[in-house]
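Checklist before submission:
- one chain only
- standard amino acids only
- sequence pasted in full

Submission:
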Amino acid sequence: MPKTRVQKEEIVQKLKEKFSQARSVVFADYKGLSMKHLSDLRNKLSEVDSEFTITKNTLLNKANPEIKLEGPTATLFSYDDEISPIKLLVKALKDAALGKVKSGFLGQDLLDEAKILQLATLPSKDELRAKTVGILVAPIQGIVSVLQGNLRNLVYALNQIKLQRGGDAQASS
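Returned file contents:
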């Protein structure tokens, strides 16, 4: 059943809100993907605080005049992490060997297909945080190791002095 003008205006308003709230947006051609693939993809993407919707291009174009889309289009709105949902989408499309990304936005910057595919190769926020923590902890671990070495050497020297003065190395005080 066709949507009324009022319903379409409501959809455009909701899309405008989604565009303003999303940290990244990707438009993808979903042609060839089965409903099961789309449903599985939606479920995976919802787990990383993102939304995958299929909307008419005319409504998308009204909601954001910067874009001009053609052909079947699904839209990925990422609300928390900008990169992880893009990685999931690109992987799912690659695994299915169907569909492709068209364009998108990272913040306010317009992205083409090549830039989106490049973003999909970046590590996730959690991976970057782990690497950063590892980099920050490494010098501290080195200092602890050096200080422990000095303490071990001091204990060894004191033990040697004790042995030279006739003490028992096995005796504990």
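Reviewer check: Residues 125-164 form the longest helix (40 residues).
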